[in-house]
Amino acid sequence: MRAKILFLAEKPVLREGLRLAQEMLSEMAVAFSHSFIMREHLMDREFSPQELRDLSSDHDAVVLAGSQEFSDKAAKALSCFAGMSAFNRADTVSELSRLKEGSIPSADFIWPLAGDTAIISKTAVTACAHAKKLRKNVVLSLNEGTQEWVDPLNKAAMYAALPAPAILPLHEAMDTLLFQQDRPSVVLANSDEKNMLSSLMRFLTGTELLQHTSYYSDHIKLHSVIPPAGQQGFPLFSALYAAASAVRESLLLEKEADCLDTAIANVLASSWRTPEFGVWPKTISHEEALRLIVEQVHLAGELMENFN
After folding, report:
1. pTM of the prediction?
2. Which CATH number is 1-80+217-308 given?
3. What's the CATH number for 87-209?
4. Are 294 and 24 in contact (CB under 8 A)?
5. 138 has which bridge partners?
6. Where are the extended beta strands (E) located within 117-275?
7. Is there a shared CATH topology between the 1-80+217-308 domain and the 87-209 domain?
8. Where are the domains of the chain?
9. What is the C-alpha separation between 251 and 244, in angstroms, rounded?
10. What is the pLDDT of residues 30-51, one digit of tens each?
């Protein structure tokens, strides 16, 4: 496959970090006989929407690193209608959890980027399609502002042949996430409640350095790395997972994305940590972590070639 991938950064230090994600994708392309043209660009905080549209117009995927404000502005410039954050890697790195006991909560959060009817309907369809693919329940965090989302969500669930969504006020939605974990949920919420719930999940699971956000439009998906506030150092694994997400969701290369996700998870599961995690017994550089991942990717590529 031939594909063009755009990497955008808000600051020079973030651009340097994204280059490691580029290197991973370059090695994956070699291993699986693809051809990726990757371009990077340092965006000024005051960039114009048209500037971003012009930059991304002939690319198949966009990966961005920047603040929440910067990411939201980029998403709106690309006419994205919804955002999604997934918390489905906690079992891979259970030692990061801040919980002393019990199972680690898991959920995906989806929220609309605007409040008009068409955007809400598209977001509901996206939430239900995602839930069906992963066999998850759908939960709506209900308040006065989201009351009008009930009908579009019920319709989307019906067309997707899903069970009726759980329509719950915030405190009950939170209880569902924390104490009813037999089947993980896709939670549809407004931006404020999503921020509160996802902050809680990041803290409990200890996975704030593994998360990324995907933004959805009718034409392109934006995969965004948003470093935690006050964090020292670049969140390498967030960037690597975002790049793998671009391979899966934008380039539609499932087996290659599975390979990347598995290789990244294997490094974490082996207790290797990079400096931004703080003091750990098995701390290695970003470059060494990338080398461990790339070794697995090349091996998988060789096995795939021999199998075919």
Report:
1. 0.93
2. 3.40.50
3. 3.40.1010
4. yes
5. 186
6. 137-142, 166-169, 185-188, 213-216, 221-225
7. no
8. 1-80+217-308, 87-209
9. 10
10. 999 999 999 999 987 778 889 8
